[in-house]
Amino acid sequence: MSPVATTVPWAGHVPGDKGYRRVLAALACAGVATFAQLYSLQGLLPALSRELQVSAAQASLAISVATMGLAIAVLPWSFVADRIGRVRTMGTAIILATVLGSLVPAAPNFQVLLILRALEGAALGGIPALAIAYLSEEVSSRHAAGAAGAYVAGTTLGGLFGRLLAGPVADLAGWRIGTLSVSISAALAAVGFLLLAPKPRGFFPVRGGGFGTVLARLLPPLRNIKLLALYAQAFLLMGAFVSVYNYLGFRLEAPPYLLPASAVALLFLAYLAGTVSSRVVAGMAARFGRRAVLLGSTTVMVAGLAITLAPALPVILLGLVVFTAGFFGAHSIASGWTGMLASSGRAQAASLYNLSYYTGSSVVGWAAGFAFQALGWSALAGGLAFLVLLAAVAAVVLLPSGHPKT
């Protein structure tokens, strides 16, 4: 008797197989293409401020409008991906963003630069909106947390690469050429993503339904109090994080430090602490629980902010490393937890997390500039520490404290 054919549900790639390695490698390329472009101007804000004759808070809009464009676009991208697939959507987003990013260095004035950055950010929204959903569908659920940690680690390297490349090039040839060099590198990374991403096996397109049906997929995550707590983590912690990196360069380029742009770019080497912590916390969460590790990470962030209050440059840099390690540990836990808690509308749940994350980057990252300009670094650090503590309170009150799978 011939065997009966059965359809075995897709269980996902596991560590050690070729598909798993290709998924992570493709997302690493996507992380470089996305975060190198998104934040390439962050280390150049003092130079941009001087050349275009705008204040520190105004210069920070070059970051804020891009992250706000991304925040607004993550939900539309998620709906597109539900129909045509995660990989096709992310590929389209990367290509479009790279084209727009190459136009930024040619902006004739600050207003045009902001428009191009907003459009670039909107295009980039297709990657972080879908990366975690893509991982959840293509990687075994037993290894999804570790894969999410690897992806977050890759995004730190992408952001670090863009900043480290742009700063020294800007010292030699100006901020426009520095930005262009990042766009060229992002184009190469985009090609890497398109070549490496394996054919999706866990994706099933959503067919039919009008606009109301589409919006209805947002209701389950918006009714989930645990997910709302994670969205609060995203908004508050990312707002604090981007504010530190937006304005620390202004502090260190001014007396008594007087660091050049190339030296300020080296501040972003602190991202390597995040590369490590985002991987380490996955194992810690399995042992101690997600909430405990999340709270530990936010405590580390506050400690790092306190250390940056010291006047000595080496101590400031130590504080930045500690703060960065804490942030990426918290972000890795919160973003991976979002995918686990979403029983339906997974792409929309992940997109709402990213909406909160980049709205925090935009709103807090811009508004913090006024505190820095008026009151200095100590007041800014104190205000950001308060936001981090608010995130911790939300976690204590609203998130489960039991087994990591809850």
Automatic annotation (TrEMBL):
Q: Which residues form the Major facilitator superfamily (MFS) profile domain?
A: 23-403
**Membrane topology type, per the record?**
Multi-pass membrane protein
What Gene3D superfamilies does the entry give?
Answer: MFS general substrate transporter like domains
Q: Which residues cross the membrane?
A: 23-41, 61-80, 87-108, 114-135, 147-165, 177-197, 227-248, 254-272, 292-310, 316-334, 355-374, 380-399
Q: Does the keyword Transmembrane apply?
A: yes
Note the CDD domains from the entry: MFS_NepI_like
Pfam families this protein is in? MFS_1 (PF07690)
Q: Which InterPro entries match?
A: MFS, MFS_dom, MFS_trans_sf
Entry keyword set? Cell membrane, Membrane, Transmembrane, Transmembrane helix, Transport
The subcellular localization recorded is: Cell membrane
Write out the similarity annotation: Belongs to the major facilitator superfamily.
Q: What is this protein called?
A: MFS transporter
Task: Give the organism, scientific name.
Answer: Arthrobacter cryoconiti
